[in-house]
Amino acid sequence: MKQISVFVENRPGSLMEVTSKLVEAEINIRAVSSFDTPEFGILRMVVDNPQKAKETLTHLGFVVRITDVVGVELKDEKGNLNRMLSILADGQINLNYIYSFVIRDGSAPVMVFSTDDMDRAGKILLQEGVRLVSDEEL
To answer: How many CB atoms lie within 10 A of CB 98?
Structure first.
């Protein structure tokens, strides 16, 4: 799964500037998470066209990166997040960050996370029966 990260100033309206440009470019935002410091923020998004989003925002002067993340389907049941985190911890996989979203009708929530070893994390989860979600399924 691909994610875009956009560096934005930490001021009123800065997130809206990004989202309005994506709306104008007809890009659908499927998930969003922001992390901030006093001066700037990092807006992380799963969108329907990461390359077009990057080109659109870069052309407007934003610093944008496309990165791989892992999307995991977790049924809305007690303990499922802990089970996934236990699998990763047992495999010595450290998470850089994690966020979730629900977008697919009748489907389970999706947890999105980043780690320094994406391939290994995906393999470990698959071996334990955890369902990964691809961009095409969103």
So the answer is: 18
Region of 74 please: left (phi>0), alpha (psi -120 to 50) or beta. beta
pTM passes above 0.85: no
Task: Report whether 70 contacts 125 (CB < 8 A).
Answer: yes
Confidence of residue 105 (pLDDT cuts 50, 70, 90): low
The CATH H-level (homologous superfamily) assignment of domain 70-137 is ACT domain (3.30.70.260)
Which CATH code, of 3.30.420.10, 3.90.320.10, 3.40.190.10, 3.30.2130.10, is assigned to 2-68? 3.30.2130.10
Cα gap 74→83, rounded to integer Å: 10
